[in-house]
Amino acid sequence: MNRRLLMDIIEEQKLSGSTVIMVTHQMEEVERLCDRVILLKDGTSRAYGTVEEVQEQFGGTIYRIAYTGVLPASELYEITDSGEGSADLAPRHGTDETAVLRELINAGVAIRSFTTERVSLEEIFIRVYGAKETAGA
Known about the structure:
A hairpin with a 2-residue loop joins β1 and β2. Helix content is 37%, strand content 31%. The chain has 2 domains: 2-56, no CATH class; 59-118. The chain has helices spanning 2-15, 27-33, 51-57, 97-106, 121-129, 131-134; strands spanning 36-41, 44-50, 61-68, 77-83, 86-91, 110-118. It is an alpha+beta fold. The strands form 2 sheets. Strands 4-5-3-6 form a 4-stranded antiparallel β-sheet, with helices on one face. A two-stranded antiparallel ribbon has the order 1-2.
C-alpha cells in the first residue's frame, strides 16, 4: 500500500512538471513514470535516453508468436525466446512483420497468433545485468 502511494505521489509530481530522480529495479515503474532512463553497470552507462530510445538501442520491437510446426532459423529475425509452441522473434534491421510472417507461412509454420510489441525495459534490464543478478533485485 505504501509503495502504491509513493508511486502516485511521484506521478503527481511528474505531471506538475517537477523533476524526480528515482533509483529502482522495478522496470514497470520506470516505463510508467520516467521520461528518461539510465542503466548503470559497474559505474558505466550501458543505456541512456528516453524509454523509447533505450528500447530502440536494444532492438525496439519483438514479434511474439504462437505456432505449431518447426520454427526455422532465418536471416530476417533472431529467436530470442522460445517455449512449447511460442517464441519471441527480434527482427533484423529493416525487416518488417509482413516479411517475417510470409517467411514463416512459406516454411509451413501454422501461426495461431502474431503480435508486435516493444522490447520491455525488464528484458533490457536482464540483458544488461544478467538474469542471475536480477534474482535478488
